[in-house]
Amino acid sequence: MELTDLLEAAVQDGLRAGATFCEARFFEGRSHTISIENGVARSLGFGIQRGIGIRVIFNSGWGFASTNILTKDSIEKTLHDAIGGAKSLSSFRDEGAELFEAKPSRDRVLHKAKISPEDVDPEEKVRRMLELERAARTFSDRVKDTFVSYRDYTTRVIVCNSFGTLVEELTPRTYAYCSVISREADNMQIGFEYVGNVGGYEIVEAIHSDAFSKKAAEKAVSLLKAHPPPRGTFTVVLDQRVGGLFVHEAFGHNSEGDLVFGGQSIVSDKLGKMVASELVKIIDDPTMPRNGHFIYDHEGTRAEPHTIVDRGFLRGFLHSLESAAKLKAEPQGRARAQSHQFPPIVRMSNTYFAPGDYSLDEILEDIDLGVYLSGSQYGYVETEKGQFTCKVEEGWLIKGGELREHLRDVAISGMTLDALKNITAVGKDLKVESPGTCGKDGQAVPVDSGSPHIRIEGIVVGGRC
What we know:
By secondary structure, the protein is an alpha+beta fold. The protein contains ten helices and 23 strands. β16 and β17 form a beta hairpin.
């Protein structure tokens, strides 16, 4: 049988067995990876992941099971396991499972790469990564360790469900990452750069070492002479990557519909209310051609741009079919799964602060004493408490409206809603250039984030001496 025939047969068998909803989702991921360390090609890998996940609603309860074996018998057993799981759970509790009954979609989407990674000889990929690593390693004698990695990852997803949806989407993504460690006596610093997007090997061919590996090395070396950050509460200015990290971690997760109806979001009761400065507009847009781009989510819902906050007011949440039904909203195609081995859950895509009217000079000019933050390392948020922490790559002390002392090991923290309400300037210079993966409930999916320059009052600054 054809793959789509197997999926449609599973859905019909599920309905005949008594499921009120049935979904069969095929997933295939093909990846190539390269790792370079200190001038040596350490690894070259290739992997394929393939299988089918089946999700049902039975007796108002959810059931889910998956298989890596693409035969009729294995798929029938997987369906039986999913229904059995739903029956077992519903005997203990009533989940009240419900879905927004979406209009069915029938479509096939192929995102084309200008240069297919599979058409490029692996030796050429290794040679290119070695060239980029060499540019960083030879930058300075204070560079002690260099790491360059490459990954291309092509996914094929087919979603078939009992609403009549049958959609397929093929998506190539390509990434390169450079990390440089510098050392002087006991002082060790790190600089890094990364690129990635939906597309093929043309993303790697477009890399210039001056803006990639040499730039990472330059940051790592210059940070050796940087100062520890001041500690206290300051006016801060976030660059585009730090702003992207902040909007993703501090607010994006709080806007995810499953966390809202589950009582884990600080804005669950604030729809239509002011949650930020009137200068703030926050958008999540999977149609934007960035790393979080897709046309259909993993429930087969067509993805749409969504304004979460507009002029400071909370306008809506991000939804799956389930969260849309529970919160009486329209789904926008935000349910995704890492692979066939996981059920879809609400996820962000390309999340960003919309641009405002200020130039960077105007943002800085009236700051007597503050901190400029550049380059994101990591962040996390406690959605129920509304607290966030972001670690940044580097910073500068702002004095009299100008950037002065270089700062290292800088972190910021605060309360999400307080920080959003204390945004006093939003720049014109939007960039959405932070490709990565977002983790939630044990799943990782590709996302992107960004921002123009943003000024926030009263942020706690600290770090490591």
